[in-house]
Amino acid sequence: MSAPSRVGSIFSLRRRNWRSAGPLGWLLGSPAAFVLLVVALGSGTANYLTGEADRTATAHANDTVAGIERLISEVKDLETSERGFVLVGSEDYLTPYTSALTKIETELAGLGSAAQDPVRAGGPSLAGLIAQKRDFAARVVAARRNQGFEPAIELVRTGEGKQLMDAIRAEAAARQAATLERLATLQAIEGWRGLLLFLLSGAAALGAIVLLARLALVRRQESLRMSRLLDGVLANAPVGLGFLDRDLKIRHMNRALATMSERGFGADLGAPIWAMLPTLREELALKLAAALKDGLVSPNVPVAVPAPSAPGGVRHFSMSFYPLRGVESAATDENVEGVGLVVVDETIRHLAEARLRRSEERFRSLIEASAAIVWTANPEGSLHRRQVAWSRFTGQDEAAYAGLGFLDAVHPEDRPHTRAAWSRALSSLEPYATEHRIRAASGAYRHMSVRAVPILESDGTLREWVGTHTDITERKEAEAAIEAARAAAEAANAAKSQFLANMSHELRTPLSAVIGYSEMVQEELEDIGEADLVADMKKIETNARHLLGLINDVLDISKIEADRVEVYAEDFDVATVVQEVAVTVEGLIAKKGNTLALALEADLGSAHTDVTKLRQCLINLLSNAAKFTENGRITLSVARADTTMRFSVTDTGIGMTPEQVGRLFERFTQADASTTRRFGGTGLGLAITRAFAEMLGGAIAVESRQGEGTTFTLTLPVRFETGAAEEADADSAASPGERGTILVIDDDAATRDLLARFLEREGFSVTVAEDGRRGLDLARSLHPRAVLLDVTMPQMDGWAVLRAMRADPEIGATPIVMVTVLDEQNLAFSLGATDYLQKPIDWGSLRQIVDRFRPSAGSGPILVVEDEADVRGHVCAYLEREGFPVREAENGLRALATLESERPCLILLDLMMPEMDGFAFLRALRARPDSRDVPVVVLTAKDITAEDRRRLAGQADRVLTKGSTGLGELARELRALVPTMDGAG
Predict the structure, then answer these.
(1) Distance CA 914, CA 891 (A)
(2) Which residues of the chain have pLDDT under 50?
(3) CB-CB contact of 514 with 544 (8 Å)
(4) Cα–Cα distances in Å, from 579 out to 575, 685, 746, 969?
(5) Residue 576 β-bridge partners
(6) Which of 579, 600, 589 is nearest to 632 (CA)?
(7) pLDDT score of 787
(8) What does the pLDDT read at residue 276?
(9) E strands within 821-943?
């Protein structure tokens, strides 16, 4: 490979970069090797230092032994000189003596602690013994000099000198032996320690060498591997890479550049890049010369090469040229050895740009031709310049719609919400959608549907908005027309509903009069003994009731079609309702010689649904069975399964074919025409039954075999769930008649139970509350006849409840009896308590107090408020025959006037009356303190809706339907409300 190609080699660059880490780079690259080298160096240093210390200690020991020898020699010289002086007496003999004393001091100082410390613990030291020896010698010399020979000899003969000399010799020998022993131990330790440190140092050095050798090998291998990988990446790079020598001939090409050469300029290794296309020389020569001679980089030089295989016959390249320098001149502009070449095939990009230009032109043409106004806006919300469609439609020029000037074309009434919606979209970068009116160039306003979306850059920043205005004026006009039609339809539907309500009243009222008078006439005929005419009157009553049933069916189906049927759910005992239904249809069942059997499961329990509609469904099914069965058996079965109730009516009648079953529940349709002619009926009963069943969340099924009988199965949920609103209506509607109750408010469960049981035994209806807040809510909803109130309770004590009730105009007059363990009568009466009982309760006192709150039924007449004179007349006549005192009024105003003169014990009230209807009368009645507790029974032909029940809640004690309620049933209801008149007359 030539020199230029080697200069550009990735491998050479890789090695040079690795070595440029510095002289210690190879060492610091391996922490373990570095640690081992440190260990080797430390071990060698420690071995040297400990050796020096041991040599010093050995020299010191040898000096100590030699010093002791010299010291003993000097002591001997001292003793010899001393003896010579004693024998001769000449001062010349004391010269060695004096010299020995000086040398002994020098030697003792040199020995230091070896002379000062005794070898044996507690024994004399060498210095001490020598001091004693010198003292003895001094005494001998003094004795000889001062006293003569004999005294000195006598002193020597004591043996003290010899003993001291022996002791000195023994101590010196022991000190020498100890020093030599310590020296031997030290030399042994030094031998082992030196060997170990030498071995450790050698092993650490060897390990470091091995690690560094391995590191060098691994790095070399990694460098080779990375070089191969990088060469592979460059060889397979999607861009073309190549090297040109100084003669501008191609010396190296990667795979991508070779492919581009084959498809485009057709150059080969060893040839100039323009070998096949000489025209390229003129385009590239200057760029290549700038890179080769001046060391300049020429990036992104566009080159177009004719190529039959390329789309459009031309292949577009982008070429970049840069100089290749030698290693030693990499930091200078000299010695350029060749030119590096980077080539990118941009043919596809050029095609994409061409398509984009064509698409933009097409889009622009589409915008100009579109009926909608297409516009663009900058990130700040201002329209871009040259909004041709906007200007054409609105007549605004660029100066007019600049900034937020486009809002001037929006209708003044629509500008605020348009500005707010546009501001929200700009701040949140969410799509912009609104509707407004804009002024056209003609001056007329047009309704527009506006939509705009943000166009985001790849980094999420907003680039612009693109939106449209679509003319929806025709749609708005159509919507207005539809709205007008809907309003008209609602008005017509309201008129229909009002018509149905009026028809319900107008048809049922005369029929109820017919039924009522027929009942009265029957009783009078029986009284005068005209039994033959009773059957005729019975026929009149039966046909009137039949007509009333037909009218009810038609009205019911009309309400179902208008979706105006309301469900009034309440709790009831299932077995009781079924038995009541059986009693109701007894006569109808027996009319054709049929028998009715009840098959009720044990523990049917209670249910919560619309009992009126359930009763009507069962009556319809039993009536249907009775109509098509003669001298047969009809069975009503009731079963409960978890959350559902199943009612089955089985007969042994004529049965049906599958074709007849298929159209059984169609309105105004029976099995076939012959069935209608033979058995009669409107064909609405089963249709109404199925509609009611579905309203209550259930279903109805039928099984039949011709000639054998039919079974209808009605399945309903045990609890009808309709939501909080219906539950609230049900709760409020359950309150009529509760005004006669006594409310017990006490937090103690045992006290509540005792009071409730006592009051119920005394004939009162009782409601209990476990705390003051709940008690206050119940008092406001129930309007009880009296309240028994404890004082010490959580959340809200009795005094707070008492103050709240007295401050409430609706329940302020309710009697309140304080029942508490506290002795606070004065406080209770000052706050408005009616009476006071202290716990433990005296039941006799409690009985006397609550007797004052019993309803004063029977103390006045029954007031009948009814606008229909016939109905009012026959109701009054019947009640008088039953022994009730009666007063009458034809409307609410007259009834209020009657109350001024006499307080009734009960009011029988119609709802639909002129001048003042029943609802207004009830409000006025309950507003009068002296009439709040008067029982009210509503007797009306009006269909009672949920709203009516809400308005009657807490105001009326019973609601009865005209026509459906016979006079006997009316009397029973009144006696239940006026017990003291039971059996009157």
Answers:
(1) 7
(2) 1-22, 24-28, 329-331, 333, 671, 673-680, 723-739, 838-841, 843, 857-858, 954, 962, 979-985
(3) yes
(4) 6, 21, 39, 17
(5) none
(6) 589
(7) 87
(8) 62
(9) 835-838, 862-865, 886-889, 906-909, 936-940
Q: Is 636 left (phi over 0), alpha (psi -120 to 50) or beta?
A: beta
pLDDT of residue 683: 60
**Is the distance from CB of 365 to CB of 388 less than 8 angstroms?**
no
Per-residue tokens: 699: 């279903």
Structure tokens at 605: 């329990």
- Residue 373, strand partner residues: 469
The one-letter amino acid at 722: T
Cα gap 273→271, rounded to integer Å: 6
User: Which residues partner with 93 through β-bridges?
Assistant: none
Q: Is 324 exposed, middle or buried (0-12, 13-18, 19+ CB in 10 A)?
A: buried
Rounded to the nearest 5°, which phi and psi values hold at 587? -65, -40
Q: What helix, strand, coil percent values describe the chain, rounded to 5?
A: 55, 15, 25
3-state secondary structure of 842: coil
Residue 695 sits at φ, ψ, to 5 deg, of -60, -35
70-93 b/e with 16+ CB inside 10 Å = b?
ebbebbebbbebbbbbbeeeeeeb
Count H helices and E strands in the chain, helices first: 34, 26
Q: E strands within 718-751?
A: 741-745
CA angle 386, 392, 393 (to 5 degrees): 125
Cα–Cα separations (whole angstroms), residue 75 to 88, 99, 125, 163, 935: 20, 11, 15, 13, 148
Q: Which pLDDT value is given to residue 526? A: 78
Q: List CB contacts of 679: < 8 A, sequence separation 6 or more.
A: 627, 628, 670
Q: Helix or strand or coil: residue 317? A: strand
Classify strands 298-306 and 314-325 as parallel, antiparallel or unpaired: antiparallel
Q: Which tokens belong to 596? A: 């009715």
**Matching residue, tokens 């004719």:** 306
pLDDT digits (tens, 9 = 90+) for 395-429: 999 888 888 889 999 999 999 999 999 999 999 98
Alpha-carbon Rg for the chain in angstroms: 63
* Residue-wise pLDDT tens digits, 182-207: 888 877 887 787 788 788 888 878 87
pLDDT, position 633: 92
List beta partners, residue 909: 865, 938
Omega of the bond prior to 840 within 30 degrees of 0, cis? yes
At 502 the pLDDT is 65
Report d(CA 107, CA 811) in Å as an integer. Answer: 128
Sheet holding 644-650, edge to edge: 595-600, 633-641, 644-650, 709-717, 699-705
Q: Which SS3 state, helix, strand or coil, does residue 609 take? A: strand
Per-residue pLDDT at 340: 86
Only one residue has tokens 């320098």, namely 325
The residue written with tokens 């109750």 in the block is: 741
- For the record, the structure tokens of 974 come out as 């009144």
Residues sharing a CB contact under 8 Å with residue 530, sequence separation 6 or more, in sequence order: none
In sequence order, what DSSP letters do the residues of 922-935 get, joined into one string? Answer: HHHHHHSGGGTT--
Asked if 288 and 248 count as a contact pair (C-beta separation under 8 A), the reply is yes
Say how far apart CA 899 and CA 269 lie, in whole Å. Answer: 125
Closest CA to 256 of 309, 301, 337, 319: 319
How many whole angstroms separate alpha carbon 910 and alpha carbon 960?
A: 10
Length of the chain: 985
The token pair at 529 is 């003994």
Closest CA to 418 of 403, 431, 437: 437
Q: Print the SS3 string covering 74-130.
A: HHHHHHHHHHHHHHHCCHHHHHHHHHHHHHHHHHHHHHCHHHHCCCCCCCCCHHHHH
Per-residue b/e over 600-617, b at no fewer than 16 CB within 10 Å?
A: beeebeebbbbbebbbbb
Check if the beta carbon of residue 541 is closer than 8 Å to that of residue 522: yes
Tokens 């060698």 — which residue?
44
Surface-to-core class of residue 209, CB atoms within 10 Å of its CB (0-12 exposed, 13-18 middle, 19+ buried)? middle
